[in-house]
Specification:
It contains 2 helices and 7 strands. The chain is an alpha/beta fold.
Length: 115
């Protein structure tokens, strides 16, 4: 299924505080932190990313699953978006973070097991 919002992510330079806040507010569960500082939220509904080592930015974004991440990036740029996190292929998924013309950050992604 493409072009649907089906994932979210929180970037935080203080993931312990963010985990405490969101866990207490919404009763979310968090997985173990990966070597790159990423924790899954409620198994597969979202993620919490430790941004301390990458400039300490904070964000809360939604992800849209698309059929072709590179094509979505190209189209978004043509419509006035900029790139916050360029195309990443981590083996399991492809994704990128974009910023719309009004400054809102969002993500596009695709599981690698799907065409």
């Amino acid at each position: 299924m493409a072009d649907v919002v089906n994932y979210f992510e929180i970037g935080s330079p203080d993931p312990v505080s963010s985990r405490t806040f969101y866990g207490s507010l919404f009763d979310w569960g968090f997985g173990e932190q990966s070597p790159v500082g990423y924790q899954m939220v409620n198994s597969d509904q979202g993620g919490l990313w430790d941004t301390a080592s990458m400039g300490g930015q904070a964000w809360a974004i939604f992800y849209v699953q698309v059929e072709d991440v590179k094509a979505a990036i190209t189209r978004a740029e043509a419509l006035g978006a900029s790139i916050a996190v360029p195309f990443v292929d981590n083996g399991a998924i492809e994704f990128a973070h974009l910023v719309d013309p009004q400054g809102n950050r969002f993500g596009v992604w695709r599981p690698k097991g799907q065409a």
